[in-house]
Amino acid sequence: MPQLDNVTFLSQIFWCFITFSLLYFIVLKNILPNIAKVLKIRKKLFDYYNSLFNNINTINNNYIVFKSSDISNLFFIINKNINDYNEIYKNINNNSYISNNIRNYSLLNITRKLSKVITNGK
C-alpha cells in the first residue's frame, strides 16, 4: 500500500501540515472576519428593528388608550346631551297649555261637559 510506504510517509505528513496550516490562516484572516462582520450587522439591524417595533407598539398602545378615552368622553357628552334634551322636553311638556288643561280634567269631567254640550245643543 503506497500510503504506508516509509519513503513517502514523511513527505505526506509535511505537505498535509502545510496545506491545512495555509487553509487555517486563510479562513482565520479572510473568511471568519467577514462572517463576524455579517453577524454584527445582523445583530445591530435586529436590535434596531426590535427597538423600532417596540416604539411603534408603544405609540400604538398610547393611541388606543387615547382613542378609547376619546370614545368614552364622546359617549359621556352624548349621554349628557340626551339627558339635557330630555329635561327640556319634560319642562316644555309640563308647561304647555294643553297638557295643563288635560291634566285638570279627569275623564269623568270630560264626559259630563260633553253630555252638557250635547243636551244643550238639542
From TrEMBL:
Q: Please give the superkingdom of this protein's source.
A: Eukaryota
Q: What is its EC number?
A: 3.6.1.34
Where in the cell does this protein reside?
Answer: Mitochondrion membrane
Which protein is depicted? ATP synthase F0 subunit 8
Asked if the record carries the keyword Transmembrane, the reply is yes
UniProt keywords, alphabetically? ATP synthesis, Hydrolase, Membrane, Mitochondrion, Transmembrane, Transmembrane helix
Q: Which GO terms describe its molecular function?
A: hydrolase activity
Segments crossing the lipid bilayer: 12-32
Please give the GO cellular component terms listed in this UniProt entry.
mitochondrial membrane
Task: Tell me the Pfam families matching this sequence.
Answer: YMF19 (PF02326)
Q: Please give the organism.
A: Malawimonas jakobiformis
Keyword Nucleus assigned:
no
Where does the ATP synthase YMF19-like N-terminal domain start and stop, copy by copy?
2-85
Q: A biological process (GO) annotation for this entry?
A: ATP biosynthetic process
